[in-house]
Amino acid sequence: MSDNSxxxxxxxxxxxxxxxxxxxxxxxxxxxxLPISAEAIQRDLDRRKPGxxxxxxxxxxxxxxxxxxxxxxxxxxxxLRTTGTPISLLIENIDQRxxxxxxxxxxxxxxxxxxxxxxxxxxxxxxxxxxxSARETAARxxxxxxARLVIPxxxxxxxxxxxxxxxxxxxxFDWDEVGRNPFFCADARAAEQWAPYLDGIRKAGxxxxxxxxxVAEGVPAxxxxxxxxxxxxxxxxxxxxxxxxxxxxxxxxxHAAELTGEENADEMRAERPLPKFLSNNAxxxxxxxxxxxxxxxxxxxKPTSSILTPRQTVTTHNEDADIVTKGRHDPCVGIRAVPxxxxxMACVLADHFLRHRGQTGREGGFGFGRNAP
Length: 373
Fold this sequence. Notes:
The chain is of the alpha+beta class. It has one domain (about 5-360): 4-Layer Sandwich (Chorismate synthase, AroC fold). Helices cover about 25% and strands about 20% of the residues. Helix 5 packs antiparallel against helix 7. The radius of gyration is 22 Å and the shape is globular.
């Protein structure tokens, strides 16, 4: 199986299966000398791990990360620093229940990757989906924690902004609320209203989709490149690579099709040291290059495919069958996608930071005055 790596200069490769002994990631291209610790990586993993509320899968995984390579002792601080060599991170699987999937070993789950994996490889890991399982995303979150070390001046945050048909009210948006509710939602009132709705979905054995908004602040102007190295394209690719993601938009996204040129244009006025944009319909990216405004992107996650409602399907022998997927599954996989979205944004930005610095010798844009070309 190819294509398990992402990025150019900051590049990571994930490995392992949902019901294997462990999963992990190898991060290559991380600059040397950065302070690093298992605790810093663990903080991000703890936000993604399962079993933290009744609204996520009850699979119990500690997701305890182990750093196997790429670090060395810092005599000045008694901590660890990156060496510039590949950083290998290991996360053991400790709560697999493969027997939960024995009834579907010969059946394809509708809406799942079972059928397409079988068509491509001639076999599939029916125990949770193997590589197609969302379990793989724990490794991405670990890679994202390393990426944040490369760009400490950038703040990356995400919030669930929609579950099913229910959206937040941006007038109530408060980043401090994200850590105070089980939905990672910046609107406390919306989170309170979502609770009974998702309880009903969960008790019915069904699932529902969601939308996550990711915002990166502190990105200077100049990151990204035309024509095939666009920052926006890499962000879209990163999000679309996440399990169950079916759509991505940046800035006004699809809504931009409803606007006139006057409404959509982000007008500018002179300020010091840099001009100011009067709006951010572009989501912080123009022509595939960051403009210094916050980067705003959203992605939509489909409902979890594994549900208790009987569905029609076929077997691996191409025979009609009905299927009920038992086991422990997220009624809304979008909840745990919040830290995953942050991680993928961090990986893209770390990669583009290194690419920009490598080409221009600068961390940001040229600006005005003496530094102008």
